[in-house]
Amino acid sequence: MIDVQINEVPLKEHSPSMDNCLDEQKLLYDMLLSREIDNRSALVTRQGRAWFHVSAAGHEGLAVLPQLMEKNDVLVPYYRDRALVLARGMSTVEMARELMGKATSHSAGRTMSNHFCDKENNIFSVVSLTGTQCIPAAGAAWASALDNKNGLVVCGVGDAATRQGEFYEAVSFAVERRLPVVFVVSDNKLGISTSTAAMAPYRLGIFNECLIRRVDARKPETVFPVAQEVFNKARFERTPCILVCRMDRLDSHSNSDSHKLYRSQDELEALQDPIENYVAYLKEKGTLNDQDLAEQKESIKSDVAEIFERVYHEEEPDPESVSTYLCNRQGAPVVHVEMEAEETQVKAVNQVLDEALSSIRMCCYLARILRILKGVFLVSPVAYLPAILIALLMPPFLKPRLLAHLLGCPLVAGVRLLNCNLSTLLGWASTSYSHNLAL
């Protein structure tokens, strides 16, 4: 286990996030904008201008959360967090570029749709493998804690992905280290077409209830006070939390399926729209009328249509650049260590590790596959023998998956060298955008 001392952080006497009031009109705008971008994205996909679309309709209630975040906080979203990242500051232009895979997009046209990312607003790139975003989220929170700052990390995750091992690992590490992170679970009770009602771990009693707070995001105004309490406890008391947000997915999983095939008519009719609920709430308060709502919707619709049309005519990625960004960025420092002894892999690895530990201010080794015995990393092929024997006895359809795991070099897959200062540990200095990642 890595032995790192986390400094105690005293509660600040005052912080904007502690006494924020809900900006009701901004929340309404962000929700309407997210819905209109969804509508326009579906349209351009049907037109053949985009290839894949994942709707976030029904998840707009989470747009309230960025009102409780500060500039240096980090948002690690998942693919249905459109309203969340819009409210955090990602622009409609960037969303259109990302959807249509333009050369001007944050990934230079290299990511799938709904892989949101915005370096300027500390929005970490969406990861394709669901649940895996929880690990870097915990890492970013750890960096903030080690830096002795009152930073907060908000990590979005779907309810089905909470069954993934990465979610358990991230939550366990956050609790162990008392990290300032909140895992925001979008609980729409569906994993693509499978109901999660009887399988979500927070409904099975897997987690201690003291870790969990629940809120109905179908009524966005109710999210704010609960999230404010949770965020402040995570930020100032280093109390991580799983914030389960109940919501309804109003559309199919994506444009490639139809939810009418796996949802009953009664279920479809019972779905609640957070925008309709919030509009009714504002009207009851007397802060919104039909005319103002109609004018705002029309203005947003016109703006989004104009932006999408303009982005459609922007530059496409050059096929010749397909290999760009696959390796380290041009101009980035490269360290070459002359090997004292290259007769064995173990000796070479140990020398590199010694060099890093002696020369880099903050260097952490996280290892899963490797065993450490008296300071020596054992990578003997003998260690593979039990697994190989098991593989020989396994059913044929399971062998490829196991062999793929076994044959992956443990020195690459099992060890991550974080040879950087705290700012790069967060990922912004060298590995923020997905096309800047050097693996």
From TrEMBL:
The chain crosses the membrane at residues 372-394. Signal peptide: none annotated. One of its GO terms (molecular function) is branched-chain 2-oxo acid dehydrogenase activity. GO terms for biological process: branched-chain amino acid catabolic process. It catalyses: N(6)-[(R)-lipoyl]-L-lysyl-[protein] + 3-methyl-2-oxobutanoate + H(+) = N(6)-[(R)-S(8)-2-methylpropanoyldihydrolipoyl]-L-lysyl-[protein] + CO2. Its cofactor is thiamine diphosphate. Keywords: Membrane, Oxidoreductase, Thiamine pyrophosphate, Transmembrane, Transmembrane helix. Its EC number is 1.2.4.4. InterPro entries: Alpha-ketoacid_DH_E1_comp (IPR050771), DH_E1 (IPR001017), THDP-binding (IPR029061). CDD domains: TPP_E1_PDC_ADC_BCADC. Residues 31-319 form the Dehydrogenase E1 component domain. Belongs to the BCKDHA family. The branched-chain alpha-keto dehydrogenase complex catalyzes the overall conversion of alpha-keto acids to acyl-CoA and CO(2). It contains multiple copies of three enzymatic components: branched-chain alpha-keto acid decarboxylase (E1), lipoamide acyltransferase (E2) and lipoamide dehydrogenase (E3). PANTHER family: 2-OXOISOVALERATE DEHYDROGENASE SUBUNIT ALPHA, MITOCHONDRIAL (PTHR43380:SF1). This is 2-oxoisovalerate dehydrogenase subunit alpha. It comes from Photorhabdus temperata J3.
